[in-house]
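User: Please run a holo structure prediction.
Assistant: Happy to. Please share the sequence and the ligand.
User: Here you go; the ligand is 2-acetamido-2-deoxy-beta-D-glucopyranose.
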Amino acid sequence: MVKVSKLFGVVVLIWISVSLWRSYKNNYISKQQLMEQLKRKTSFISNKDRNKIHLNQQINSNNQDINSTQKQETFQYVCDKTGTFNGYEKTNRVEDLVIYSEMPKCGSGTLVDIFQQTARRATRKHLPTYHTGYTYPVPHEELYQWNKRLNYANGIFEETPPYLFLGHLRFLDFKEVGHKQPVFIDLVRDPINRTISAYHYGRKPQFNERANMTKAETKMSMDECFERLLNETGCVGARDLNKCLHGKKLTACKSSGIVERMTTWFSGYGSEVSVNKAKSNIDKYYLIIGVTEYYTESLVAFGTLIPPVFNMNPTTLVETYKTISNRNVGRNVKQPSAKTKAILRNILSEEYELYQFILQRFLKQMKCMEIPLRSGK
Ligand SMILES: *[C@@H]1O[C@H](CO)[C@@H](O)[C@H](O)[C@H]1NC(C)=O
Ligand SMILES: *[C@@H]1O[C@H](CO)[C@@H](O)[C@H](O)[C@H]1NC(C)=O
Ligand SMILES: *[C@@H]1O[C@H](CO)[C@@H](O)[C@H](O)[C@H]1NC(C)=O
Ligand SMILES: *[C@@H]1O[C@H](CO)[C@@H](O)[C@H](O)[C@H]1NC(C)=O
C-alpha cells in the first residue's frame, strides 16, 4: 500500500513538472513572434516626430572638431527592419542569455534599476521574464587568465535561463572559452561627459581611501587638477597628450576616471586592445549599444530588440523609467572650463573615434527600426 501511494506521488510530481514546463514554453514568446506583435502595435510616438531624425545633424556639441560628414561616409553597416546589422553573428548564440556589460559612468545604475524593476513587475504578474541579479563586484584583473575566464563563463551559464546579467563586465568572449556567444548589450555616453562624471564620482567619500586622496584632493576642481597634471609632467602645450603622458608618473589628479576606457572596455581580454578590435567585437557580438544622450530612445530600442523582452511592448522600459528616481542620469555636476575640455578631448581622441562609431551605429539602427528620436539634441 505504501509503495503504491509513493508511486502515485511520483507520477503526480512528474505530471505537474511537465505541465509547468509546457505552460512556461507556451508563454515564452520567441523574438519573431514579438516582432510580429510589435508591427501590429501602433507607435507611441506620433508620426509628426518621425521626421526629426537628421542623421547628418551635428549631434555632439563636445565634439565639434569631428567632421561628421566624413564619419558618416565611412559608416557602411547595413541593418534590416528588425534592427539587426549584416555583421552581427547570428549563428552559435544563446538567445536566452543577455549580458549587459555595463560600461561605467554612462547612466548604468539607472538602467540596472529599470531592468530589475521591470523583471520584478512581470514576475508579480506571473509573466515570463528574465532572471536578473546584480553582480558586484565583477572580477577584472584575474580574468586576464584563460582558466579564470572559463570558470567565470561557466558560472554565468549555470544561471537559470532566460538570464539577464547585470554588472561591470567588460567584453568577455565566451566563444574563446568554448561556449556559445550570449547576446551582448551596453550603453555609452559622450566621452567628455563620461569622464566628468567619473571624476566627480571617484571623489565621493567611499572611494577616497582607496584612491588615497587627501581632503584637498577630493575637493580639487577638474580645472585645477589638469593644470597641475600638465605642469608636473611638463606636457603643457603638447600636441599629442597621450604620447606625452605615456609612462609618466601621475601624482596630480589621482583618479582612474581621467583615462580612456571605452576602447579597452569593448576590446575585452584578448591580446589586442585597439579601436579596431573594439569595433569588430561590437559589430559581431553586440545586439545594440544605446547612447545616454538618447536615453529614452535607447530604452525603446532595448525593449524592442532584447529577446524575449520581459513579454511586453517596447515602451515597457520607458514606463518603468518614469516611475523610478532618476538619480544618476544627467546629474548636475560642475562643468570644467573649455580649456580643460580641450585637454580632455585630446586625451580621449581614441575614445571619441569609438564613440562616434557607436553613435552612428545606434542612429542607423533607430532608422532601420523606425524608432523616432526625440530627446537628442
Ligand atoms: C554634456 O553634459 C552637459 C551637462 O549635462 C550637457 O549640457 C551637454 O549637452 C552634454 N554633452 C553631450 C555631447 O551630450
Ligand atoms: C568633411 O569631410 C568631407 C569629406 O572628406 C569634405 O568634403 C568636407 O569638406 C569636410 N568638411 C569640413 C567642414 O571639414
Ligand atoms: C597613502 O598615502 C600615504 C601618505 O601620502 C602613504 O604613506 C601611503 O603609502 C599611501 N598608501 C597607498 C596605498 O598608496
Ligand atoms: C608648475 O610647476 C612649477 C615647478 O614644479 C611650480 O613652481 C609652479 O608653481 C607650478 N605651477 C602651477 C600652476 O601649478
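The longest strand covers residues 93-100.
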